[in-house]
Protein backbone atom coordinates (compact mmCIF):
# COMPACT_ATOMS: atom_id res chain seq x y z
CA UNK A 1 0.00 0.00 0.00
CA UNK A 2 1.34 3.41 -0.90
CA UNK A 3 1.10 6.52 1.23
CA UNK A 4 -1.22 9.32 0.12
CA UNK A 5 0.33 11.54 -2.48
CA UNK A 6 2.71 8.89 -3.87
CA UNK A 7 1.72 8.04 -7.45
CA UNK A 8 3.55 4.99 -8.75
CA UNK A 9 1.29 3.91 -11.61
CA UNK A 10 3.31 2.56 -14.54
CA UNK A 11 6.66 3.26 -12.84
CA UNK A 12 9.14 0.43 -12.36
CA UNK A 13 12.45 0.97 -10.54
CA UNK A 14 14.68 -2.07 -10.10
CA UNK A 15 17.24 -2.40 -7.32
CA UNK A 16 20.75 -3.12 -8.52
CA UNK A 17 21.67 -4.65 -5.16
CA UNK A 18 18.61 -6.89 -4.84
CA UNK A 19 17.09 -7.72 -8.25
CA UNK A 20 14.55 -10.17 -6.75
CA UNK A 21 12.25 -8.89 -4.00
CA UNK A 22 9.92 -11.15 -2.01
CA UNK A 23 6.51 -10.17 -0.69
CA UNK A 24 6.89 -9.88 3.09
CA UNK A 25 3.58 -11.72 3.59
CA UNK A 26 3.37 -14.62 1.10
CA UNK A 27 7.09 -14.63 0.06
CA UNK A 28 6.26 -14.58 -3.67
CA UNK A 29 9.17 -13.24 -5.73
CA UNK A 30 8.85 -10.03 -7.75
CA UNK A 31 11.19 -7.92 -9.86
CA UNK A 32 10.80 -4.63 -7.95
CA UNK A 33 9.17 -2.85 -5.04
CA UNK A 34 6.51 -1.46 -7.38
CA UNK A 35 5.56 -4.98 -8.45
CA UNK A 36 5.19 -5.92 -4.78
CA UNK A 37 2.92 -2.89 -4.26
CA UNK A 38 0.77 -3.83 -7.25
CA UNK A 39 0.45 -7.34 -5.84
CA UNK A 40 -0.55 -6.03 -2.40
CA UNK A 41 -3.09 -3.58 -3.87
CA UNK A 42 -4.93 -6.24 -5.91
CA UNK A 43 -8.35 -7.40 -4.74
CA UNK A 44 -6.96 -10.91 -4.21
CA UNK A 45 -3.99 -9.59 -2.23
CA UNK A 46 -2.41 -11.61 0.58
CA UNK A 47 -2.75 -8.44 2.67
CA UNK A 48 -6.20 -7.92 4.16
CA UNK A 49 -7.69 -4.42 4.49
CA UNK A 50 -6.50 -2.70 7.64
CA UNK A 51 -7.32 0.61 9.41
CA UNK A 52 -5.98 3.81 7.89
CA UNK A 53 -2.33 4.46 8.70
CA UNK A 54 -1.73 7.66 10.66
CA UNK A 55 1.60 9.30 9.85
CA UNK A 56 3.19 11.16 12.80
CA UNK A 57 3.93 14.83 12.09
CA UNK A 58 7.67 15.69 12.03
CA UNK A 59 8.76 18.24 14.65
CA UNK A 60 9.85 20.65 11.93
CA UNK A 61 6.17 21.33 11.26
CA UNK A 62 4.88 21.08 14.83
CA UNK A 63 7.45 23.48 16.31
CA UNK A 64 6.16 26.42 14.29
CA UNK A 65 4.72 29.06 16.64
CA UNK A 66 2.12 31.68 15.90
CA UNK A 67 4.74 34.12 14.61
CA UNK A 68 5.80 31.70 11.87
CA UNK A 69 2.70 31.67 9.72
CA UNK A 70 4.72 30.97 6.59
CA UNK A 71 5.83 27.42 7.49
CA UNK A 72 5.40 24.98 4.60
CA UNK A 73 6.79 21.53 3.91
CA UNK A 74 7.10 18.70 1.45
CA UNK A 75 7.80 14.98 1.88
CA UNK A 76 10.05 12.89 -0.34
CA UNK A 77 7.72 11.53 -3.00
CA UNK A 78 9.07 7.96 -3.13
CA UNK A 79 9.84 6.95 0.45
CA UNK A 80 8.15 5.03 3.23
CA UNK A 81 5.70 2.84 1.27
CA UNK A 82 3.77 0.21 3.25
CA UNK A 83 4.14 -3.45 2.26
CA UNK A 84 1.54 -5.18 4.38
CA UNK A 85 0.72 -5.77 8.01
CA UNK A 86 3.09 -7.27 10.56
CA UNK A 87 3.24 -7.75 14.33
CA UNK A 88 4.65 -5.23 16.75
CA UNK A 89 5.73 -6.05 20.32
CA UNK A 90 2.16 -6.01 21.68
CA UNK A 91 0.99 -8.43 18.99
CA UNK A 92 3.88 -10.78 19.78
CA UNK A 93 3.06 -10.62 23.49
CA UNK A 94 -0.50 -11.72 22.78
CA UNK A 95 0.68 -14.86 20.98
CA UNK A 96 3.69 -15.56 23.19
CA UNK A 97 2.04 -18.27 25.27
CA UNK A 98 -1.26 -20.04 24.46
CA UNK A 99 -2.28 -20.48 28.12
CA UNK A 100 -1.49 -16.86 28.95
CA UNK A 101 -3.37 -15.71 25.85
CA UNK A 102 -6.50 -17.56 27.10
CA UNK A 103 -6.18 -16.10 30.60
CA UNK A 104 -5.58 -12.55 29.33
CA UNK A 105 -8.95 -12.59 27.59
CA UNK A 106 -10.38 -12.53 31.13
CA UNK A 107 -7.65 -10.45 32.80
CA UNK A 108 -5.45 -8.37 30.43
CA UNK A 109 -2.86 -7.96 33.22
CA UNK A 110 -2.45 -11.69 33.97
CA UNK A 111 -0.50 -13.04 35.91
CA UNK A 112 -1.06 -9.91 38.03
CA UNK A 113 -4.46 -9.40 39.63
CA UNK A 114 -5.07 -5.83 38.51
CA UNK A 115 -3.41 -2.57 37.51
CA UNK A 116 -2.56 -1.68 41.12
CA UNK A 117 -0.65 -4.93 41.68
CA UNK A 118 1.19 -4.46 38.39
CA UNK A 119 2.30 -0.98 39.49
CA UNK A 120 3.48 -2.39 42.83
CA UNK A 121 5.44 -5.14 41.07
CA UNK A 122 7.01 -2.65 38.66
CA UNK A 123 8.02 -0.34 41.51
CA UNK A 124 9.76 -2.94 43.67
CA UNK A 125 11.36 -4.75 40.72
CA UNK A 126 13.04 -1.53 39.55
CA UNK A 127 14.08 -0.18 42.97
CA UNK A 128 14.70 -3.13 45.31
CA UNK A 129 17.17 -5.99 45.28
CA UNK A 130 15.86 -9.55 45.39
CA UNK A 131 16.81 -9.78 49.08
CA UNK A 132 14.89 -6.58 49.86
CA UNK A 133 11.86 -7.84 47.90
CA UNK A 134 11.76 -11.04 49.97
CA UNK A 135 12.03 -9.03 53.20
CA UNK A 136 9.25 -6.74 52.00
CA UNK A 137 6.90 -9.65 51.29
CA UNK A 138 7.49 -11.07 54.79
CA UNK A 139 6.54 -7.89 56.67
CA UNK A 140 3.92 -8.16 59.42
CA UNK A 141 1.94 -5.61 57.44
CA UNK A 142 0.63 -8.40 55.20
CA UNK A 143 -0.65 -10.53 58.13
CA UNK A 144 -3.79 -8.42 58.33
CA UNK A 145 -3.91 -7.14 54.77
CA UNK A 146 -4.09 -8.76 51.31
CA UNK A 147 -0.78 -10.17 50.19
CA UNK A 148 0.41 -9.78 46.54
CA UNK A 149 -0.21 -12.80 44.34
CA UNK A 150 3.57 -13.29 43.94
CA UNK A 151 5.06 -14.85 47.08
CA UNK A 152 8.77 -14.29 46.48
CA UNK A 153 11.26 -12.40 44.37
CA UNK A 154 11.96 -15.54 42.34
CA UNK A 155 8.28 -15.88 41.46
CA UNK A 156 8.01 -12.18 40.53
CA UNK A 157 11.05 -12.24 38.23
CA UNK A 158 9.86 -15.58 36.82
CA UNK A 159 6.64 -13.88 35.71
CA UNK A 160 8.62 -11.02 34.23
CA UNK A 161 10.86 -13.46 32.34
CA UNK A 162 7.76 -15.03 30.73
CA UNK A 163 7.32 -11.87 28.68
CA UNK A 164 9.05 -11.67 25.28
CA UNK A 165 12.59 -10.37 25.74
CA UNK A 166 14.71 -8.09 23.62
CA UNK A 167 17.74 -9.12 21.55
CA UNK A 168 19.86 -11.71 23.32
CA UNK A 169 23.38 -10.96 24.52
CA UNK A 170 26.20 -12.87 22.86
CA UNK A 171 29.84 -13.36 23.80
CA UNK A 172 32.79 -13.74 21.43
CA UNK A 173 36.40 -14.28 22.46
CA UNK A 174 38.96 -12.59 20.22
CA UNK A 175 42.69 -13.12 20.02
CA UNK A 176 45.59 -11.86 17.94
CA UNK A 177 47.80 -14.23 16.01
CA UNK A 178 51.41 -14.18 17.25
CA UNK A 179 50.51 -11.77 20.05
CA UNK A 180 49.55 -12.80 23.58
CA UNK A 181 47.36 -10.59 25.75
CA UNK A 182 47.42 -10.64 29.54
CA UNK A 183 43.75 -11.64 29.69
CA UNK A 184 41.22 -12.88 27.11
CA UNK A 185 39.53 -10.21 24.98
CA UNK A 186 35.79 -10.64 25.42
CA UNK A 187 33.34 -9.00 23.02
CA UNK A 188 29.89 -8.94 24.65
CA UNK A 189 27.34 -7.79 22.12
CA UNK A 190 23.83 -7.88 20.75
CA UNK A 191 22.84 -8.37 17.14
CA UNK A 192 22.79 -4.87 15.64
CA UNK A 193 19.87 -5.43 13.28
CA UNK A 194 17.77 -7.03 16.02
CA UNK A 195 18.40 -4.00 18.26
CA UNK A 196 17.37 -1.63 15.44
CA UNK A 197 14.26 -3.73 14.74
CA UNK A 198 13.38 -3.81 18.45
CA UNK A 199 13.46 0.00 18.55
CA UNK A 200 11.69 0.43 15.21
CA UNK A 201 8.78 -1.86 16.12
CA UNK A 202 8.23 -0.56 19.66
CA UNK A 203 4.68 0.90 19.89
CA UNK A 204 5.81 3.32 22.64
CA UNK A 205 7.34 5.44 19.86
CA UNK A 206 4.36 5.14 17.48
CA UNK A 207 3.43 8.83 17.72
CA UNK A 208 7.04 10.05 17.72
CA UNK A 209 8.46 8.44 14.57
CA UNK A 210 9.75 9.93 11.33
CA UNK A 211 9.90 7.78 8.19
CA UNK A 212 10.41 10.19 5.30
CA UNK A 213 12.90 12.90 4.29
CA UNK A 214 11.07 16.21 4.27
CA UNK A 215 11.68 19.82 3.34
CA UNK A 216 10.70 22.53 5.85
CA UNK A 217 10.47 26.16 4.71
CA UNK A 218 9.89 29.20 6.95
CA UNK A 219 8.74 31.82 4.47
CA UNK A 220 11.52 31.67 1.83
CA UNK A 221 14.21 30.22 4.13
CA UNK A 222 14.92 26.53 4.63
CA UNK A 223 14.83 25.17 8.19
CA UNK A 224 17.12 22.35 9.39
CA UNK A 225 16.43 20.27 12.48
CA UNK A 226 16.26 16.46 12.57
CA UNK A 227 18.43 14.50 10.12
CA UNK A 228 15.43 13.85 7.85
CA UNK A 229 15.14 17.60 7.17
CA UNK A 230 18.62 17.83 5.57
CA UNK A 231 19.75 17.23 2.01
CA UNK A 232 21.87 14.25 3.09
CA UNK A 233 18.63 12.36 3.86
CA UNK A 234 17.32 13.13 0.37
CA UNK A 235 20.66 12.09 -1.16
CA UNK A 236 20.64 8.65 0.51
CA UNK A 237 16.91 8.12 -0.13
CA UNK A 238 17.40 8.75 -3.85
CA UNK A 239 20.01 5.97 -3.93
CA UNK A 240 17.59 3.39 -2.46
CA UNK A 241 14.83 1.39 -4.19
CA UNK A 242 11.50 3.16 -4.57
CA UNK A 243 9.35 2.91 -1.48
CA UNK A 244 12.29 2.18 0.87
CA UNK A 245 12.28 3.46 4.45
CA UNK A 246 15.51 4.54 6.10
CA UNK A 247 16.10 3.30 9.65
CA UNK A 248 18.82 5.75 10.65
CA UNK A 249 21.55 4.24 12.84
CA UNK A 250 23.02 6.50 15.56
CA UNK A 251 26.01 5.35 17.60
CA UNK A 252 27.69 6.71 20.73
CA UNK A 253 30.81 5.32 22.39
CA UNK A 254 33.10 6.26 25.25
CA UNK A 255 36.00 4.19 26.59
CA UNK A 256 35.48 3.63 30.32
CA UNK A 257 37.94 2.33 32.94
CA UNK A 258 36.44 -0.45 35.06
CA UNK A 259 39.36 -0.83 37.50
CA UNK A 260 42.32 1.50 38.06
CA UNK A 261 44.24 -0.03 40.96
CA UNK A 262 43.58 -3.72 40.21
CA UNK A 263 44.69 -4.49 36.67
CA UNK A 264 43.56 -1.49 34.66
CA UNK A 265 40.55 -3.28 33.10
CA UNK A 266 38.75 -1.17 30.49
CA UNK A 267 35.57 -1.52 28.51
CA UNK A 268 34.48 0.21 25.35
CA UNK A 269 30.64 0.43 25.38
CA UNK A 270 28.83 1.16 22.11
CA UNK A 271 25.30 2.54 22.37
CA UNK A 272 22.87 2.25 19.43
CA UNK A 273 19.61 4.03 18.74
CA UNK A 274 17.69 5.03 15.63
CA UNK A 275 17.23 8.61 14.48
CA UNK A 276 13.67 7.90 13.32
CA UNK A 277 12.59 8.49 16.93
CA UNK A 278 12.10 12.21 17.37
CA UNK A 279 14.67 13.82 19.63
CA UNK A 280 11.97 15.43 21.78
CA UNK A 281 11.05 12.14 23.37
CA UNK A 282 20.22 11.11 26.87
CA UNK A 283 54.05 -4.98 23.47
CA UNK A 284 55.69 -1.69 22.45
CA UNK A 285 53.25 0.91 23.50
CA UNK A 286 52.79 2.09 19.87
CA UNK A 287 52.07 -1.46 18.73
CA UNK A 288 49.58 -1.91 21.56
CA UNK A 289 47.70 1.20 20.43
CA UNK A 290 47.69 -0.10 16.87
CA UNK A 291 46.35 -3.49 17.93
CA UNK A 292 43.75 -1.77 20.11
CA UNK A 293 42.56 0.27 17.11
CA UNK A 294 42.40 -2.80 14.87
CA UNK A 295 40.55 -4.70 17.59
CA UNK A 296 37.98 -1.89 17.91
CA UNK A 297 37.21 -1.90 14.18
CA UNK A 298 37.06 -5.72 14.11
CA UNK A 299 34.54 -5.74 16.98
CA UNK A 300 32.45 -3.13 15.18
CA UNK A 301 32.56 -5.33 12.06
CA UNK A 302 31.15 -8.24 14.04
CA UNK A 303 28.44 -6.23 15.78
CA UNK A 304 27.13 -4.33 12.76
CA UNK A 305 27.47 -6.99 10.06
CA UNK A 306 23.70 -7.36 9.64
CA UNK A 307 23.08 -3.62 9.49
CA UNK A 308 25.55 -3.45 6.61
CA UNK A 309 23.69 -6.21 4.78
CA UNK A 310 20.35 -4.51 5.47
CA UNK A 311 21.74 -1.28 4.02
CA UNK A 312 22.62 -3.12 0.81
CA UNK A 313 19.58 -5.38 0.35
CA UNK A 314 16.91 -3.97 2.65
CA UNK A 315 14.94 -5.65 5.42
CA UNK A 316 11.17 -5.82 5.82
CA UNK A 317 10.21 -4.61 9.31
CA UNK A 318 6.87 -3.84 10.98
CA UNK A 319 6.70 -0.29 12.31
CA UNK A 320 5.15 0.66 15.69
CA UNK A 321 1.69 0.70 14.09
CA UNK A 322 2.23 -2.81 12.74
CA UNK A 323 2.63 -1.94 9.04
CA UNK A 324 5.52 -3.51 7.14
CA UNK A 325 8.06 -1.21 5.51
CA UNK A 326 11.09 -1.94 3.33
CA UNK A 327 13.84 -0.61 5.57
CA UNK A 328 17.48 0.31 4.99
CA UNK A 329 19.94 1.11 7.79
CA UNK A 330 22.38 3.94 6.98
CA UNK A 331 24.82 5.08 9.66
CA UNK A 332 24.05 8.78 10.06
CA UNK A 333 25.44 9.76 13.47
CA UNK A 334 28.31 8.63 15.68
CA UNK A 335 28.93 10.80 18.74
CA UNK A 336 32.38 10.44 20.29
CA UNK A 337 35.03 12.56 21.95
CA UNK A 338 38.10 13.69 19.99
CA UNK A 339 40.39 10.64 20.60
CA UNK A 340 37.60 8.23 19.64
CA UNK A 341 36.67 10.33 16.60
CA UNK A 342 40.28 10.01 15.41
CA UNK A 343 40.14 6.27 16.11
CA UNK A 344 36.98 5.94 14.02
CA UNK A 345 38.24 8.14 11.18
CA UNK A 346 41.57 6.20 11.16
CA UNK A 347 43.76 9.29 11.45
CA UNK A 348 46.65 10.14 13.79
CA UNK A 349 46.42 12.33 16.88
CA UNK A 350 47.83 15.40 15.12
CA UNK A 351 45.25 15.28 12.31
CA UNK A 352 41.65 16.43 12.23
CA UNK A 353 39.08 13.62 11.89
CA UNK A 354 36.80 15.91 9.89
CA UNK A 355 39.06 18.23 7.86
CA UNK A 356 42.13 17.91 5.64
CA UNK A 357 43.95 20.25 8.02
CA UNK A 358 47.42 19.49 9.38
CA UNK A 359 48.64 20.51 12.82
CA UNK A 360 50.28 23.66 11.46
CA UNK A 361 46.90 24.67 10.01
CA UNK A 362 44.97 24.57 13.30
CA UNK A 363 45.75 28.24 13.96
CA UNK A 364 44.14 29.53 10.75
CA UNK A 365 40.61 30.69 10.03
CA UNK A 366 40.51 28.87 6.69
CA UNK A 367 37.90 26.21 6.01
CA UNK A 368 39.81 23.20 4.69
CA UNK A 369 38.27 20.49 2.49
CA UNK A 370 36.51 17.71 4.43
CA UNK A 371 38.35 14.49 5.35
CA UNK A 372 36.18 12.12 3.30
CA UNK A 373 35.98 8.39 3.80
CA UNK A 374 36.75 7.88 0.11
CA UNK A 375 40.04 9.77 0.48
CA UNK A 376 41.02 7.79 3.59
CA UNK A 377 40.20 4.44 1.99
CA UNK A 378 42.17 5.35 -1.13
CA UNK A 379 45.24 6.13 0.99
CA UNK A 380 44.82 2.86 2.92
CA UNK A 381 44.42 0.75 -0.23
CA UNK A 382 47.43 2.35 -1.90
CA UNK A 383 49.49 1.79 1.24
CA UNK A 384 48.39 -1.85 1.53
CA UNK A 385 49.43 -2.39 -2.07
CA UNK A 386 52.99 -1.33 -1.14
CA UNK A 387 53.34 -2.70 2.40
CA UNK A 388 51.92 -5.78 4.10
CA UNK A 389 49.59 -4.37 6.83
CA UNK A 390 50.70 -7.12 9.23
CA UNK A 391 54.33 -6.07 8.93
CA UNK A 392 53.50 -3.87 11.86
CA UNK A 393 56.63 -1.69 12.28
CA UNK A 394 56.99 -0.87 8.58
CA UNK A 395 53.26 -0.41 7.97
CA UNK A 396 52.92 1.83 11.01
CA UNK A 397 55.88 3.96 9.91
CA UNK A 398 54.46 4.42 6.40
CA UNK A 399 50.95 5.08 7.74
CA UNK A 400 52.14 7.86 10.08
CA UNK A 401 53.72 9.63 7.11
CA UNK A 402 50.21 9.75 5.60
CA UNK A 403 48.64 10.79 8.95
CA UNK A 404 46.84 7.42 9.16
CA UNK A 405 46.39 5.37 12.33
CA UNK A 406 47.59 2.09 10.73
CA UNK A 407 44.09 0.55 10.70
CA UNK A 408 43.73 -1.12 7.32
CA UNK A 409 40.10 -2.32 7.64
CA UNK A 410 37.85 0.47 8.99
CA UNK A 411 34.48 -0.91 10.06
CA UNK A 412 32.65 1.64 7.88
CA UNK A 413 34.49 0.70 4.66
CA UNK A 414 31.67 -1.58 3.37
CA UNK A 415 28.69 0.19 4.99
CA UNK A 416 26.92 1.93 2.10
CA UNK A 417 26.83 5.74 2.43
CA UNK A 418 28.76 5.59 5.73
CA UNK A 419 31.34 8.36 5.65
CA UNK A 420 33.07 9.75 8.78
CA UNK A 421 32.82 13.17 7.19
CA UNK A 422 29.03 12.89 7.59
CA UNK A 423 28.35 10.59 10.54
CA UNK A 424 31.02 11.92 12.95
CA UNK A 425 29.55 14.89 14.80
CA UNK A 426 31.34 17.18 17.24
CA UNK A 427 29.42 17.22 20.51
CA UNK A 428 28.92 20.43 22.45
CA UNK A 429 30.11 19.00 25.77
CA UNK A 430 33.67 18.23 24.62
CA UNK A 431 34.16 20.54 21.64
CA UNK A 432 32.27 23.50 23.09
CA UNK A 433 31.94 23.60 26.89
CA UNK A 434 35.05 21.55 27.73
CA UNK A 435 37.06 23.72 25.31
CA UNK A 436 35.79 26.86 27.06
CA UNK A 437 36.88 25.52 30.44
CA UNK A 438 40.29 24.40 29.16
CA UNK A 439 41.17 27.55 27.21
CA UNK A 440 39.07 30.79 27.32
CA UNK A 441 38.45 30.44 31.08
CA UNK A 442 42.20 30.00 31.68
CA UNK A 443 43.00 32.93 29.38
CA UNK A 444 40.70 35.14 31.45
CA UNK A 445 42.33 33.92 34.68
CA UNK A 446 45.77 34.89 33.36
CA UNK A 447 44.76 38.35 32.17
CA UNK A 448 42.31 39.40 34.88
CA UNK A 449 44.04 37.56 37.73
CA UNK A 450 42.58 34.71 39.71
CA UNK A 451 41.89 36.80 42.82
CA UNK A 452 40.05 39.54 40.95
CA UNK A 453 38.09 37.05 38.84
CA UNK A 454 37.07 35.12 41.96
CA UNK A 455 36.06 38.36 43.71
CA UNK A 456 33.80 39.27 40.78
CA UNK A 457 32.04 35.90 40.83
CA UNK A 458 31.66 35.97 44.62
CA UNK A 459 29.99 39.39 44.30
CA UNK A 460 27.39 38.21 41.75
CA UNK A 461 23.82 38.44 42.98
CA UNK A 462 22.22 35.09 43.63
CA UNK A 463 19.58 34.17 41.06
CA UNK A 464 17.23 31.19 40.97
CA UNK A 465 18.26 28.82 38.19
CA UNK A 466 21.85 30.09 37.99
CA UNK A 467 24.74 28.59 39.93
CA UNK A 468 26.30 31.04 42.39
CA UNK A 469 30.05 30.53 42.63
CA UNK A 470 30.47 31.60 46.24
CA UNK A 471 34.08 30.39 46.31
CA UNK A 472 35.02 31.78 42.90
CA UNK A 473 35.91 29.85 39.75
CA UNK A 474 39.71 29.64 39.78
CA UNK A 475 39.84 26.48 41.90
CA UNK A 476 37.34 24.46 39.84
CA UNK A 477 38.92 21.52 37.99
CA UNK A 478 35.77 19.65 36.91
CA UNK A 479 32.42 21.17 36.05
CA UNK A 480 29.02 19.96 34.97
CA UNK A 481 27.52 21.16 31.69
CA UNK A 482 25.16 23.43 33.65
CA UNK A 483 28.10 25.09 35.46
CA UNK A 484 29.87 25.62 32.12
CA UNK A 485 26.70 27.37 30.90
CA UNK A 486 26.55 29.68 33.90
CA UNK A 487 30.20 30.76 33.58
CA UNK A 488 29.86 31.31 29.82
CA UNK A 489 26.77 33.48 30.42
CA UNK A 490 28.60 35.85 32.77
CA UNK A 491 32.23 35.78 31.63
CA UNK A 492 32.10 38.61 29.07
CA UNK A 493 30.33 41.01 31.45
CA UNK A 494 32.72 40.02 34.24
CA UNK A 495 35.93 40.77 32.33
CA UNK A 496 34.67 43.81 30.40
CA UNK A 497 35.58 46.29 33.15
CA UNK A 498 38.70 44.51 34.43
CA UNK A 499 41.81 46.68 34.58
CA UNK A 500 44.13 44.41 32.58
CA UNK A 501 41.84 43.57 29.68
CA UNK A 502 41.76 45.34 26.33
CA UNK A 503 38.69 45.88 24.12
CA UNK A 504 40.08 43.47 21.52
CA UNK A 505 40.69 40.76 24.14
CA UNK A 506 37.13 41.12 25.42
CA UNK A 507 35.79 41.06 21.86
CA UNK A 508 37.68 37.82 21.10
CA UNK A 509 36.21 36.12 24.20
CA UNK A 510 32.77 37.54 23.38
CA UNK A 511 32.72 36.20 19.82
CA UNK A 512 33.97 32.79 20.94
CA UNK A 513 31.24 32.60 23.60
CA UNK A 514 28.67 33.79 21.08
CA UNK A 515 29.72 31.06 18.65
CA UNK A 516 29.35 28.37 21.34
CA UNK A 517 25.83 29.63 22.12
CA UNK A 518 24.85 29.72 18.45
CA UNK A 519 26.07 26.16 17.96
CA UNK A 520 23.70 24.88 20.66
CA UNK A 521 20.54 25.76 18.74
CA UNK A 522 18.46 22.59 18.09
CA UNK A 523 17.22 24.02 14.77
CA UNK A 524 19.21 25.93 12.17
CA UNK A 525 18.48 27.90 9.03
CA UNK A 526 20.77 29.09 6.26
CA UNK A 527 21.06 32.50 7.94
CA UNK A 528 21.86 31.01 11.39
CA UNK A 529 24.65 28.91 9.89
CA UNK A 530 26.06 32.00 8.19
CA UNK A 531 25.87 33.85 11.52
CA UNK A 532 27.99 31.10 13.12
CA UNK A 533 30.57 31.49 10.36
CA UNK A 534 30.59 35.25 10.95
CA UNK A 535 31.11 34.84 14.73
CA UNK A 536 34.00 32.44 14.16
CA UNK A 537 35.56 34.82 11.64
CA UNK A 538 35.30 37.69 14.13
CA UNK A 539 37.06 35.61 16.78
CA UNK A 540 39.94 34.89 14.41
CA UNK A 541 40.08 38.60 13.59
CA UNK A 542 40.65 39.56 17.27
CA UNK A 543 42.42 36.43 18.62
CA UNK A 544 45.88 38.00 18.34
CA UNK A 545 44.95 40.13 21.36
CA UNK A 546 44.93 36.94 23.45
CA UNK A 547 48.53 36.20 22.54
CA UNK A 548 49.58 39.83 23.01
CA UNK A 549 48.16 39.74 26.55
CA UNK A 550 50.25 36.64 27.34
CA UNK A 551 47.08 34.76 28.28
CA UNK A 552 47.93 31.47 26.54
CA UNK A 553 50.42 29.70 28.81
CA UNK A 554 51.66 26.15 29.11
CA UNK A 555 53.96 24.22 31.42
CA UNK A 556 57.04 25.79 29.81
CA UNK A 557 55.77 29.37 29.73
CA UNK A 558 53.93 31.59 27.28
CA UNK A 559 52.61 29.99 24.06
CA UNK A 560 52.55 32.14 20.93
CA UNK A 561 50.29 30.05 18.69
CA UNK A 562 46.82 28.54 18.53
CA UNK A 563 47.72 24.97 17.58
CA UNK A 564 44.57 23.63 19.25
CA UNK A 565 42.78 20.81 17.41
CA UNK A 566 39.44 21.49 19.10
CA UNK A 567 39.58 25.02 17.70
CA UNK A 568 39.92 23.53 14.23
CA UNK A 569 36.83 21.40 14.98
CA UNK A 570 34.80 24.59 15.37
CA UNK A 571 34.75 24.61 11.59
CA UNK A 572 32.79 21.35 11.82
CA UNK A 573 29.96 23.29 13.47
CA UNK A 574 30.01 26.25 11.13
CA UNK A 575 31.64 24.99 7.93
CA UNK A 576 31.00 21.26 7.89
CA UNK A 577 27.61 22.01 9.42
CA UNK A 578 26.71 23.79 6.20
CA UNK A 579 28.20 20.96 4.13
CA UNK A 580 26.26 18.42 6.26
CA UNK A 581 22.87 20.03 5.91
CA UNK A 582 23.27 20.86 2.24
CA UNK A 583 24.67 17.39 1.46
CA UNK A 584 27.81 18.72 -0.21
Give the SSE layout:
Elements: E1 21-22, E2 29-30, H1 33-41, H2 59-62, E3 71-75, E4 82-85, H3 89-94, H4 98-104, H5 115-127, H6 130-137, H7 153-161, E5 169-174, E6 185-190, H8 192-200, E7 214-218, E8 221-224, H9 231-239, E9 244-246, E10 249-253, E11 256-257, E12 266-267, E13 270-274, H10 285-303, H11 305-313, E14 315-318, E15 323-328, E16 331-335, H12 338-345, H13 373-386, H14 392-401, H15 420-423, E17 424-425, H16 428-438, H17 440-448, H18 450-459, H19 481-496, H20 503-519, E18 524-525, H21 526-542, H22 544-548, E19 553-554, E20 557-558, H23 565-582
Parallel strand pairs: 9-15, 10-16, 16-17
Antiparallel strand pairs: 1-2, 3-7, 4-15, 5-6, 7-8, 8-18, 10-13, 11-12, 14-15, 19-20
Helix pairs in contact: 16-19, 17-18, 19-20, 20-21, 21-23
Shape from CA axes?
globular
Proportion of helical residues: 40-55%
Q: What is the CA-CA span between the terminal residues?
A: 34 Å
Number of strands: 20
Q: Can you summarize the main beta sheet?
A: 4 strands, antiparallel
- Give the strand order, joined by hyphens, for the main sheet: 3-7-8-18
What gyration radius follows from the Cα positions, in whole Å? 28 Å
Strand content: 5-15%
Amino acid sequence: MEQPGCNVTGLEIHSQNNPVIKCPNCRTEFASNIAVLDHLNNEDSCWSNEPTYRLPIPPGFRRADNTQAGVTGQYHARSGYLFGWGRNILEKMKDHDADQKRRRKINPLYPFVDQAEWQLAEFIAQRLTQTDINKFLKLDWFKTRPRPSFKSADQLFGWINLLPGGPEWQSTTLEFLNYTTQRPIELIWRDDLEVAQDLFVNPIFANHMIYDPHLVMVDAERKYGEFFSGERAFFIQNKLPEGATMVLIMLVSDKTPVTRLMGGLEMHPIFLTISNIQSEFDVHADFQMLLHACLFHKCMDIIFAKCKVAMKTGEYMPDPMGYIQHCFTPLVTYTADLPEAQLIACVTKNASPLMMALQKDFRTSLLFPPQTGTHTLRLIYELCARVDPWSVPLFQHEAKALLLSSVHQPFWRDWNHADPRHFLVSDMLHTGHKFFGDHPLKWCKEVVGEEELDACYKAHHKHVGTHHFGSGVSHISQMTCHEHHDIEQTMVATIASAANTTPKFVQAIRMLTKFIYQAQSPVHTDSSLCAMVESLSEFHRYKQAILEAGAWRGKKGTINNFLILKMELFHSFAGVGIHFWLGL
